[in-house]
Each structure stands twice: as C-alpha cells, then as structure tokens.
Design goal:
heterodimer; A: mainly alpha; about 75% helix; about 0% strand; disordered N terminus; B: alpha/beta; Rossmann fold; Alpha-Beta Plaits; 2 domains; six-stranded mixed beta sheet; 14 strands; about 40% helix; about 25% strand; globular; nucleotide-binding (chain B); P-loop_NTPase (chain B)
C-alpha cells in the first residue's frame, strides 16, 4: 500500500523498463465512417446475434431449431406435392405462415429479449450512446434487426414452397402471384410482431420477464378472440366475427391475408372481413406498429446512461 | 489549447442541482476529477459527451460545442463507464471489434485496432474467451480497451479503479498514465480517492455539490498535503515510544502532529509527519534507530476527498484553519491564470 513519493514524478529511466515488450502505440489515421455506418453495423450485429452468430455455440441452438421447424414442414409439403403430382400446393403461402404462429411466438420470445433486454441488463447501452449514433439510431437498428430476423424465419419456408412449386411445374402465374402475396404478408407480419416484441422486451432488463411478456401478448388475446369468434359464429352474428378479429395480432393477420392476400380464412365458419372491417384492420395494424415504435423510442429517452 | 472548457455550466434536476455554475478549463495531459458520490462527476461526463443538455452555461470538448456537435465529439472521445457494461456471452475480441465499428472504423481497421488495443491493455490469450469468466481486473481492461480502440483524442474514465485490489489498482493507474505518455491521448479520470489521483494525474480538479472547489496541478496538491504516517513500538527504555519519537523528531526540526481525532483504529499511536523534503524520511529512520524503537509502519497517507474540504490542521504545513475559507473565492482566478500560462 505504501508508495514512495518518487512515484508521483516518474523518472524517464523507469518508463523505459515498463515498455520492454511494447512495440509501440500506432495512431489511427484511416477513415471514420460515422453515424450511418455505425447504425448499419449495429443492425448487422443484432441480426447475426438473433441467430446466435458471433455468440456462443449454445445460443445458436434454439434459433436454428426454430428455423428448421418452420422450414422442414414446408419442404415436406413440397415433397408430397411433387410425389403425388398435385396441381396445387395443399396450403397457400400466407396460410402456411399463419400455421407457424406458435413457432414464431417462441422465436420472438427467445430473440427479442436477447436483442433488447440484455443491453439494458448488462448496461451496454451507455457504450452505444457514447458513440456517434443517437438514441433514435439505436432504436431503428434494433427494430429493423428484429423485423429482419422474423422475416428470415417466416420467408424461408415461403421461398422453399415456391421453389418446390416451380420444380413440380405447377402453374407459374398462380404460384408467383401467391408467392408475392406471401412475401407481402411476411413483411407485414414481421413488422407488427417485431414492434410489439421489441417494446415489451425493452420494458424490462430481465430476460425472463421479457420472454413471458412476449408469449402472453402474442397468445392470450389470440385465444380470447378466437374463442369469442367461435361463440359469435354459433350465434350466427357474422359481422361480430370480423369485428373481433381486430382484437389480437394473430386474428388481425388472419383477416388481412384472407381479405387482401388471397388466402383462405382461418376464422370459425370460414368468414372473412367486410370492406369496412378490412380497412379498419389495416389501420389498426399501422397504429400498432407506429404506437409500439413510438413507445420504444420514448423508453430509450430515459433508459441507458 | 484546452481539451475541455466549461463556462458557468449548470445542470438542475427537479429536486437537485447537480452542477452549479462550473467554470473550468482542462489542458492536455492526465486530469483527475475528484468528488464525493453525488458531487456531479457523472453528470459532467454526460454533458461533455453531448448526451444530456445543460440547464445553462456552455461547454466545449476538443473545441466542439457539446450542445450542437455531440456526434462529432463522440467520434473523437472514448468513454469508460463506472459500472459493469460487458455482455458475458461474447468474447473480448468480438465485443471490442463491434465497438470499434460502432465508432465508425471500417471492418478491417476495427480488427487490427482491436488486436493492438487489447495487447496494450494487457489482455492476451484470454481475449478469445467469453467475458463472463473474466476477473474484475480483466473486465476493467476490456472496458478501457473499448474506450481506446478508435484512437480518440480524449478519454473519459469514470472510476476506473473501482472494485480492484491494490495491485490491480496500481496496474490500472500505471496503464492510465501510459495512455497519455505512450499513446498521446488526454485523459479525464474521476475518483473519490484523491491519493490515488495524486500519483497519476498532472492536474486535479475537485468538485463538491456541483461547484468547483479547487483546480490545480498535482505538484501544488502534494506539496500541501504530503504527509507520512509513522507507528513505532514501545520498548523498556521508552515505555511510550510514540512520544519519545515525537520529541526526537521535533528536536531535529521536523513538524509532527499526533492524530487527535481518535477516529481511526490505533489512532493514538500514529504520528503524522509533514514531508517538506526527502531528508525527512532519513530523519525519521535515524531517529527511530537511535531510540531503538521498532518501526511498525511508515506510509504515505492516502487522502480521502473529505480532507480537502475540511483542511485538517495537521495536514497542512502553514495554513491556519480559516485559511481555506478565504482561499476558495480566489480559485477560479488561479485556474484561469494557469490555463493562460499553459497556452504560452
């Protein structure tokens, strides 16, 4: 603990001994690419992280299993269609994505807290905010990365199905139209679910709470609305089925694809949306995305540093 | 040239005033920012990084205004936070490369600079392991590395020695010293231990309650505060060894004070000796040897920040108790004189 007073004024000779194995500090004179490059780097790093790339082997397991879980059934569907010489795929592109909802729920519950909550929990956000990016850049990069990750998971089987349909020489026009409708559906689906999940995950630095919150919000309203729709269908109030569809992300998506993207309705009785309900559901989707994003941005005005 | 300049900088929160009309100029070199918890150190750093707007007054870093050029400042400044900030499942290399890119370095340069910087802070093979398994000392090194990786002109280090054992502390302080002497990067380092900064810094700024208490070169500080604590054993010939040594030293013309406060354990047995020149150390040794007393300890006093505020009489050579009172108003003037002298 005691120190000689001479250490307060280091002698040059002592300096030399300190740096025997030091080959010297090199200054960096190269280019500095600034804010937009940093934002892009954060996007890429977060997207890679969603699939466990650049992280431990353990963290690759779940995303990869889920990616396989969404893609393998698609491959099987395709194989069966080819083998049986079917004249169309047994499932439409958007409908297939809807069938994946439970898997995507698990994927979001695993990835969103990892991408968002952990920076809060390990207090890494101050390191980001002490760099050229602004808080808005951080939010944009994280949201874009989560949306992209969800899109990859749901668009992969859509691509597989389309490739299979082409191999099976199904009708090119029909399949291409369905494929693009499927991709549009994937984009909207990813944007909505990523916005909800990112906001929920950002509310808590605890990963467990984030996982629970995402699962609850994606499932409970969906089951509730589906049950109410079934009751409404029993009582023959057809318009109520459509209105209830506005009440949960899952039913909103179902209504969207059956109304606008040529899919078959998954609602009880196979009812679709009326025109007014369709327009309103688009508005609700847009409002949910914008609202979640605004809340997420507001959250980061206070969180971190 | 000044790296940091603030002009009556204030930051008020609804219930607290974190900074109160702070005017200070910081020149290149290693500068210590000392203050108790809640003195406004971290608030000042946030304002300097352009992350928190000042309530009034202005500040500039590397000649750029913090209120309008925050992004440009952050490109040229490194920041090491006080708290833990490392994700545990990523390796130091992966993490620092990512942080380098976040500062705008192209991918190849980011990899090269990361390898260089981690070596400079003393991380070798372990840099490929996940950081969750690192010791506190290694984590502090990674935190320092991420602040240096983009070759900033200035680094802001918030309590870099927090949680380190004495050896780790000395290593970190030596490393901080090297950041300036070998790397040519100016450093602003905060601490609540003044003694620690005395050994590392060229200049020390003391703030308390958001106000500037003192800003002076370390030489001034050590002159005013250098003190040696000595404890000796009692012998049969000298039943009260402490008193005997005191008499002998005072006879040799050395200023000695006992610890009257009695707060510290064994306080009654400690003698505080004001060190005016190196020969004082010899005088203490010779006096103890002549009396045949065992020297239990002889150590540089580690000054806590509180002592600067209270100016305990036994620490200062000449000033009277009231001296510090009329000294304070003069301080800002002294600072300006000093910085203008540095320009020349």
């Amino acid at each position: 603990m005691s120190s000689e007073p001479t250490t307060t004024a280091p002698a040059p000779a002592q300096r030399g001994q300190d740096v025997i194995h030091n080959i010297g500090y090199r200054r960096y004179e190269g280019q500095r690419l600034g804010r937009s490059y940093a934002r892009r780097s954060l996007f890429i790093q977060s997207l890679r992280g969603a699939f466990g790339l650049g992280r431990s082997a353990k963290s690759k397991v779940l995303p990869m299993i889920l990616l396989a879980a969404t893609s393998l059934p698609a491959a099987i569907v395709v194989a069966v269609s080819v083998a049986t010489n079917a004249d169309e795929l047994p499932v439409g592109y958007p409908e297939y994505v809807l069938l994946l909802q439970p898997v995507i729920g698990i994927f979001l519950a695993a990835v969103a807290p990892q991408m968002v909550s952990l920076d809060l929990r390990f207090k890494t956000t101050p390191l980001y905010f002490s760099r050229p990016i602004e808080r808005s850049d951080y939010v944009a990069a994280k949201y874009a990365a989560l949306s992209a990750a969800v899109f990859v998971v749901i668009a992969a089987p859509v691509v597989i199905m389309y490739a299979g349909a082409m191999l099976a020489k199904l009708d090119f026009g029909d399949e291409t139209k369905g494929f693009f409708q499927g991709l549009v559906f994937c984009v909207v689906f990813a944007l909505l679910h990523a916005a909800l999940a990112a906001y929920l995950a950002a509310l808590t630095p605890r990963r467990g709470f984030g996982i629970a919150a995402v699962i609850v919000v994606l499932t409970v309203p969906y089951f509730l609305m589906s049950a109410l729709q079934a009751i409404a269908d029993e009582q023959d109030s057809l318009s109520a089925v459509g209105w209830l569809a506005l009440g949960s992300p899952g039913t909103l998506m179902d209504g969207l694809q059956s109304k606008f993207l040529g899919g078959a309705s998954g609602f009880p009785g196979g009812h679709g949306l009326s025109n007014a309900q369709g327009a309103l559901s688009l508005l609700v989707i847009a409002a949910l995305i914008a609202g979640s994003y605004a809340l997420l941005s507001r959250r980061y005005r206070k969180a971190g540093l | 040239m000044t790296v940091i300049a603030t002009e009556s900088l204030s930051k008020r929160f609804p219930r607290v005033t974190a900074l109160d009309r702070l005017t200070v100029g910081i020149t290149p070199g290693v500068t210590g920012l000392v203050g108790a918890n809640g003195a406004g150190k971290s608030t000042l750093i946030k304002i300097l990084l352009g992350l928190s707007p000042a309530s009034e007054g202005s500040a500039s870093v590397l000649g750029m205004d913090v209120s309008t050029q925050g992004s440009a400042i952050r490109e040229r400044v490194g920041y090491m936070p006080e708290h833990d900030c490392l994700p545990p499942d990523v390796s130091a290399t992966e993490f620092v490369v990512h942080m380098a890119r976040m500062s705008g370095l192209p991918p190849t340069a980011a990899r090269e600079r990361t390898a260089d910087t981690l070596r400079h802070v003393g991380l070798y093979e372990e840099r490929y392991r996940p950081m969750g398994g690192y010791s506190t000392g290694m984590k502090q090194r990674v935190k320092l590395a991420q602040a240096l990786v983009h070759d900033p002109h200035l680094v802001l280090l918030d309590e870099p020695t927090n949680g380190l054992d004495p050896v780790g502390r000395d290593d970190m302080l030596a490393l901080i010293r090297r950041v300036h002497t070998d790397f040519g990067i100016s450093v602003l380092v905060t601490s609540h231990l003044l003694g620690e900064l005395e050994r590392t810094c060229d200049h020390v700024v003391v703030i308390d309650g958001g106000k500037l208490l003192r800003s002076s070169s370390t030489a001034d500080f050590t002159q005013r505060t250098a003190a040696l604590a000595v404890e000796v054993t009692d012998t049969d010939r000298h039943p009260d060894g402490t008193a005997a040594l005191r008499t002998a030293l005072e006879g040799a013309g050395v200023t000695v004070h006992a610890d009257e406060s009695g707060a510290a354990p064994g306080a009654g047995r400690l003698l505080y000796i004001t060190v005016t020149e190196d020969s004082v150390y010899d005088a203490v040794r010779d006096a103890a040897a002549e009396l045949g007393l065992g020297l239990v300890r002889m150590e540089q006093r580690r000054h806590q920040i509180a002592e600067v505020f209270t100016q305990q009489p036994h620490e200062s050579r000449s000033p009277e108790p009231g001296d510090s009172e009329h000294q304070r108003p003069q301080e800002p003037a002294q600072v300006r004189e000093r910085s203008s002298a540095d320009v020349v």
